[in-house]
Specification:
Layout lengths: L2 H7 L1 H16 L4 E3 L6 H5 L31 H12 L6 E3 L4 H14 L15 E6 L3 H10 L2 E8 L2 E2 L1 H10 L3 E6 L13 H9 L8 E5 L17 H7 L6 E6 L11 E4 L2 H11 L8 H11 L2 H30 L6 E2 L8 E4 L5 H10 L2 E3 L16 E4 L6 H24 L6 H6 L2
Parallel strand pairs: 1-12, 3-4, 3-6, 6-7, 7-8
Antiparallel strand pairs: 2-9, 4-5, 8-9, 10-11, 11-13
Helix pairs in contact: 1-2, 1-14, 2-14, 5-6, 8-9, 12-14, 13-14
The structure holds 4'-deoxy-4'-aminopyridoxal-5'-phosphate (PMP).
Length: about 425
């Protein structure tokens, strides 16, 4: 057997790992890998935006006065640049919002709940509303469901998208299923890119609910480590071709392209869906922040500018992800039931550990000074009944710190496995089972 397995199984291995952990506890690293935040270096790529758009008056193109109220749909030039790249829809079928795509997702679900999708009853009139939720998935999507009392129906995520046999079967059978979360490119947290077959099946499947909507979060549409080899999976086009143009609502933002919290968010879909959204916006705001839209337009200039900028992000991210991958490969490869994703973009690595170990590893890592996302966060109930899935977010740390944190996590995986092997496990799997 190779090194890590020996380290796990023998009592010598356990003793050594416990001594190592005690030493870590005595001098904790203080590294935070809980959320996928961009690093300082990434944000510095957009520092030039702080002096944009400058003091010169803006052009009043297309009869728009960019400095006044109005322009509810967003500046046409910005939509022309970003709608095809981030949403895969024509510019006329996109609407620019505020700084957060999550806020637009929350807003769209709130609208469907209160007034209904065009031609359909409000969801609030239904006895129950259910969403299909690929798991592992994104906790903030689950939080939006929880906020609206939407029941979440988990479907397993695979390497190329959700388990489509289950999705098709449930969507066709259950009229209470009104929506589904999708992150088709570099999904959070698995890093999956939906295959052409998955996209085709999502677009063509029968749904019992006539207003079934794919809430398609394109948060990582342009976020590849290497120059983008594959195109954005064309979910909108596939749905339109299949005769279901109203099925997808697409969302994206520049939060992880420019300055998080000061980016711009967009929504796209059929002309009817976008009109529905914009009509409702008139009751919320007299117009979005067009100064920020001009700022983004002047910063990116054109699609080549976006690609150049995102390549710089990709390089910085890759440096961190590679270091984590190297540590995991060196220290965890020989372990049974331990494997992890190797994404080509996005912000997360998913690490699967032996059943019953994830919560223990999070605790051991925290004691050793590395904070990772609590186990269970990736599951819609907040509970991973197998206690196996960990979300690792290397982006914010320096490459050296990312490697150090990965080394601590790997050591904690080995320690948790050694505890199980030696029968000294204090893992609280019973607590997992008891949790609501
Ligand atoms: N969607 C996904 C899948 C994300 O991972 C994130 C950031 N972690 C967001 C949305 C956040 O988007 P925004 O900043 O536009 O609200």
């Amino acid at each position: 057997m190779t090194g890590p397995i020996l380290a796990c199984n023998g009592s010598d291995g356990l003793g050594k790992l416990l001594r190592w952990h005690a030493a870590c506890r005595a001098a904790p690293l203080g590294l935070d890998m809980t959320r996928g935040l961009p690093s300082r270096e990434q944000i510095a790529l957009s520092h030039a935006m702080l002096s944009l758009p400058g003091v010169a008056p803006f052009d009043s193109e297309d009869g728009q006065d960019w400095l006044n109220y109005g322009g509810q749909q967003g500046i046409p030039q910005l939509r022309a640049l970003l709608a095809p790249l981030l949403l895969g829809v024509p510019p006329a079928q996109a609407a620019v919002g505020g700084n957060s795509s999550l806020a637009m997702m929350h807003g769209a679900i709130g609208l469907a709940w209160r007034i209904g999708l065009p031609g359909h009853a409000p969801w609030s009139a239904a006895s129950e509303v259910r969403f299909l939720c690929p798991v592992p998935g994104y906790d903030r999507h689950f939080a939006i469901c929880r906020d609206h009392g939407i029941a979440m129906v988990p479907v397993p995520m695979g390497v190329d998208g959700p388990d489509m046999d289950q999705v098709e079967e449930r969507a066709a059978r259950d009229p209470l299923i009104r929506g589904m979360w999708c992150v088709p490119r570099h999904s959070n947290p698995c890093g999956a890119i939906y295959s052409a077959e998955v996209i085709h099946r999502l677009a063509t499947m029968n749904t019992a609910a006539p207003d079934f909507t794919l809430f398609c979060d394109n948060a990582y549409a342009a976020h590849d480590f290497a120059p983008q080899a594959s195109a954005l999976p064309g979910l909108y086009d596939a749905c339109a071709t299949a005769g279901h143009p109203d099925r997808p609502l697409m969302f994206a933002s520049t939060s992880k392209m420019t300055i998080p919290g000061a980016g711009i968010a967009m929504l796209g879909g059929s002309a009817q869906r976008v009109h529905w959204w914009l009509s409702a916006q008139q009751r919320c705001t007299i117009g979005p922040d067009k100064v920020n839209q001009v700022r983004h337009l002047r910063f990116f200039v054109d699609a080549a500018g976006v690609a150049r900028h995102m390549q710089q992000h990709g390089t910085l991210l890759q440096q961190r992800f590679e270091r984590v991958q190297q540590v995991f490969a060196r220290r965890l490869s020989a372990l049974q039931d331990v494997y992890w994703s190797r994404p080509s973009g996005g912000y997360f690595i998913t690490l699967w550990v032996p059943p019953g170990c994830a919560r223990r590893i999070v605790r051991l890592a925290a004691e050793a000074g590395v904070a990772i996302t609590p186990a269970g966060t990736t599951h819609c109930s907040g509970i991973d009944s197998e206690d196996r899935c960990l979300r690792i977010a290397p982006s914010r740390l320096s490459p050296d710190h990312a490697a150090q944190a990965a080394d601590i996590i790997a050591g904690c995986v080995l320690l948790a496995c050694a505890e199980v092997a030696s029968g000294t496990s204090t893992h609280d799997t019973h607590a997992v089972k008891r949790a609501p």
